[in-house]
Amino acid sequence: MSAFPSTTSDALEAPSPDRSGRVLRAREWLGDQHILRDYELLMQDLQQNNPDLAARTRLVDPLIAHYQLRLGSASVMLAAFQRIVNVGGNDTADFLFMPVSDASASDPVRRGTHWSLLLVDRRERASPVAYHYDSHRGQNDELAAILAQRLRARPEPVRMTQQRNDYDCGVFVVDGTRTLVSRLSERWRPAELHLDNLIVDRLALRNRLAG
């Protein structure tokens, strides 16, 4: 399984060769390693401070979301899904957070230029709901709809703050995830599904990753 690159030739800053996810340059597109590391840090915080929510939440590896859940065969997708939702033989996953990439599975030239976030609410197992958060005019809407359909989740529209540069889409994914998880830890009302007031902080992310 190959990893997504952090950037393309149009990036304002070349990607760091460090694959640990600890190094993010000031104007670099996030790679899967950055998102995965921040998801791991967030889950560690959840397990320490809210173990009940941690047990009900899955922060999905970007590579698994892309290659196995969205692009994999039916059997590959189902096996990956079962590994994600089942812990100790029990399906405890009420909330799935999945980064969506526009990378191609077959064309090595199309290595991905945009991230968005798909949240699947599975509290009603028979009728899960999917919310897609895209910070760049719905660029990944079709891809997210395919993923939601494969997971048999009904799409519902939500609002998302739009990025003002060409390189912060991944920051919107991780900061959006953190904001939604924080709301889940409180009493989540329908209005709190929207992220139209989201303010991202790249510097804070860089410090978290480096720490």
What can you tell me about this protein's structure?
By secondary structure, this protein is α/β, with parallel strands linked by helices. It has one domain (32-104, 111-210): Adenoviral Proteinase, Chain A (Adenoviral Proteinase, Chain). It contains seven helices and seven strands; from the N terminus they run H-H-E-H-H-E-E-E-E-E-H-E-H-H. It has helices spanning 32-49, 51-56, 62-70, 74-85, 141-150, 169-184, 202-210, and strands spanning 57-59, 86-87, 90-91, 95-101, 115-121, 129-133, 154-156. The strands form two sheets. Strands 1-4-5-6-7 form a five-stranded mixed sheet, with helices on both faces. Helix 3 crosses helix 4 (74-85). The longest helix is centred in the first third of the chain and has 18 residues, at 32-49. The model is unreliable at 7-11 (pLDDT under 50).
